[in-house]
Amino acid sequence: MARIDLRGDALPEGSALRDLLPRADFDVQAALEKVRPICEAVHHRGDAALIDYAEKFDGVQLESVRVPAQALADALEQLDPAVRAALEESIRRARLVHREQRRAAHTTQVAPGGSVTEKWVPVERVGLYAPGGRSVYPSSVIMNVVPAQEAGVGSIALASPAQADFGGLPHPTILAACALLGVDEVYAAGGATAVAMFAYGTESCPPANMVTGPGNIWVAAAKRYFTGKIGIDTEAGPTEIAILADETADPVHVASDLISQAEHDPLAAAVLVTDSVELAEAVEKELEPQVAATKHIEDRIVPALSGRQSAIVLVDGVDEGLRVVDAYGAEHLEIQTADAAAVADRVKNAGAIFVGAWAPVSLGDYCAGSNHVLPTGGCACHSSGLSVQSFLRGIHIVDYTRDALAEVAHHVVTLAEAEDLPAHGAAIKARFGWKVPESK
């Protein structure tokens, strides 16, 4: 891993500091032009385009993109009992956390006879995406479906790429997870074609109001293409882990956690921020045997750890380290320092924070109860991870009596005239015989 030494001089502010930190090249704008014709083909040709693209991109010949109900039932029946138990526990814990995120309607009495109620209404239909490229992600099915269900979304559909090894169906573990969650509308569609299917609708798939879920650059580009037409969660990029650690951290733990995210993708980012040169050196030594002992070495882990998006960043102290990780805005941020909980409480920008030696990112990926669909590429500085709130819309209900409107009418008319919008004021005057009531 490369080293970036930020010790000695005062750290710069804002974008100047962010520019010093490692980040993967992820040009969604360039990919946008390539997905545009794909999306428009789905728009105009519907299921036929989906079937053609499945053959082109996935090497399968589909008769239909909708997964038969029997295939879902068969996948669940054939699921390894240990995997089923793990998925069920993941679902249980995710439900516990996400159920607490539900929001109730609230009424504010602004004045006698005048109130504003905010009610929360779920989107009517969502399309969820579960990737199926280098790995299979039944955990992503859980992380998308559970908050949508807990929000009360009435219509939930899921798409995952067709797999040549499974007769053109999505991976059976994906199908089994859908069955466990009671999702019976599943499509064999991947990448930009899946997003377009949900955005436009096809003969077999009604259009959705919103699309969520992680994916590759083509999924991110398709989400950008449809921004404004449908709701999206985020343009998720390659996964990231940042670890803020001091001399109390165990280099074995730190190295294993860096590797755990590097195995996702050659563009995955692994960043260690530390004020301990001794820890940095120990982690570097520990990486070699741990990498050699695992899978996906040459195609994912080595490119990820050696890429420009990964580095060990040396700082003068934990305070400076906090400034660095806040500027970085990691998808996953581990705090492995003395008094880790207090340090974690000072973090401002992160998708999710993992406190201490016994809360690794892997726990959050599967069974912490938290959601692993999180902002990447520094978007944690302004965006949140997927939650029940992602699927809810707040609607204000304004309820005023005649007397309540009369009490504030002169202010409304004054502001309307100040903005040179006299018809706004006239809408108030018309209710009172064109004479504005005097303030009491």
Keywords:
5-stranded parallel β-sheet; 440 residues; 6-stranded parallel β-sheet; 17 helices
Topology:
Elements: E1 2-5, H1 14-18, H2 28-45, H3 47-58, H4 69-77, H5 81-99, E2 106-111, E3 114-122, E4 125-129, H6 138-151, E5 155-160, H7 172-181, E6 186-188, H8 191-200, E7 210-212, H9 217-226, E8 231-232, E9 240-245, H10 251-262, E10 269-274, H11 277-292, H12 297-306, E11 311-314, H13 318-328, E12 330-336, H14 340-345, E13 350-355, H15 361-366, E14 392-400, H16 402-418, H17 422-429
Parallel strand pairs: 1-11, 4-5, 4-7, 5-6, 7-8, 9-10, 9-12, 10-11, 12-13
Antiparallel strand pairs: 2-3, 3-14
Helix pairs in contact: 2-3, 2-8, 2-9, 4-7, 5-6, 5-7, 6-7, 8-9, 10-11, 10-12, 16-17
Structure description:
By secondary structure, the protein is an alpha/beta fold. It has helices at residues 14-18, 28-45, 47-58, 69-77, 81-99, 138-151, 172-181, 191-200, 217-226, 251-262, 277-292, 297-306, 318-328, 340-345, 361-366, 402-418, 422-429, and strands spanning 2-5, 106-111, 114-122, 125-129, 155-160, 186-188, 210-212, 231-232, 240-245, 269-274, 311-314, 330-336, 350-355, 392-400. The protein has a six-stranded parallel sheet, with helices on both faces. It has a five-stranded parallel sheet with strand order 6-5-4-7-8, with helices on both faces. Helix 4 (69-77) crosses helix 7 (172-181), helix 5 crosses helix 7 and helix 16 runs antiparallel to helix 17 (422-429). The radius of gyration is 26 Å and the shape is globular.
